[in-house]
Amino acid sequence: MFNLEDVIKFNENGLVPVIAQNYYSGKILMQAYANKEAIQETIKSGYATYYSRSRKSLWKKGETSGNLQRVIDIKVDCDEDSVIYLVVEEGPACHTGEESCFYRNLNLEKDTKPLPFEILHKLYEKVEERKRLKPENSYVVKLFEKGSDKIIQKVGEEAIETVIALKNKNKEEIVYEVSDLLFHLIVALVDSGVELKDIQEELLKRYK
């Protein structure tokens, strides 16, 4: 293994700040610290390991709670004094049960609106939730009740409307119709049991 001290500038206490970020959605999950041994263990095990400053020992995220973080990649910043773990979560990152520790704004109020980079993943989760909980007067629930053929029909209709909008070269119309198409595609993906990460992985394979 290469010498970590050649690529990471640990501070006077032998630590470096680490951000855990969702590999697929880009969402920032938590911030902690790691020493050389913690990063070595992360590389060896494939799971996020940090250094607890209070306990003065290594801790594997989720070792007791089960909320593990499988590490896909590790990034180092331009100054080499901070690190990102790109992870796939196996449960919430925050001890409060929130997906991310950064769930409040500066007013210390919970921020429930998704950020732009995670909106497709949040829509997917919302569609899954509607399918599972079946709230009354839900358009999504009605689509699932009508079955796969109806969902596929809606995708086809929205695709045609998107093509017409593109033909008209009207930006506002294109944005509206593409949004409709993406939404109904997400419903169709949930109905088919295909996850967004499956699409992302396929696109990554095609990226040259």
UniProtKB/TrEMBL annotation:
Gene3D superfamilies: MazG-like, Phosphoribosyl-AMP cyclohydrolase. One of its GO terms (cellular component) is cytoplasm. It comes from the Bacteria. The keyword Translocase does not apply. It is an enzyme of class 3 (hydrolase). Pathway: Amino-acid biosynthesis; L-histidine biosynthesis; L-histidine from 5-phospho-alpha-D-ribose 1-diphosphate: step 3/9; Amino-acid biosynthesis; L-histidine biosynthesis; L-histidine from 5-phospho-alpha-D-ribose 1-diphosphate: step 2/9. Its EC number is 3.5.4.19, 3.6.1.31. Residues 1-119 are annotated as: Phosphoribosyl-AMP cyclohydrolase. Residues 120-208 are annotated as: Phosphoribosyl-ATP pyrophosphohydrolase. Residues 30-103 form the Phosphoribosyl-AMP cyclohydrolase domain. GO terms for molecular function: ATP binding; phosphoribosyl-AMP cyclohydrolase activity; phosphoribosyl-ATP diphosphatase activity. It holds the Pfam family PRA-PH. It catalyses: 1-(5-phospho-beta-D-ribosyl)-5'-AMP + H2O = 1-(5-phospho-beta-D-ribosyl)-5-[(5-phospho-beta-D-ribosylamino)methylideneamino]imidazole-4-carboxamide; 1-(5-phospho-beta-D-ribosyl)-ATP + H2O = 1-(5-phospho-beta-D-ribosyl)-5'-AMP + diphosphate + H(+). GO terms for biological process: L-histidine biosynthetic process. InterPro entries: His_synth_HisIE, HisE, PRA-CH, PRib-ATP_PPHydrolase-like, PRib_AMP_CycHydrolase_dom, PRib_AMP_CycHydrolase_sf. It is found in: Cytoplasm. Keywords: Amino-acid biosynthesis, ATP-binding, Cytoplasm, Histidine biosynthesis, Hydrolase, Multifunctional enzyme, Nucleotide-binding. In the N-terminal section; belongs to the PRA-CH family. PANTHER family: HISTIDINE BIOSYNTHESIS BIFUNCTIONAL PROTEIN, HISTIDINE BIOSYNTHESIS BIFUNCTIONAL PROTEIN HIS7. This is Histidine biosynthesis bifunctional protein HisIE.
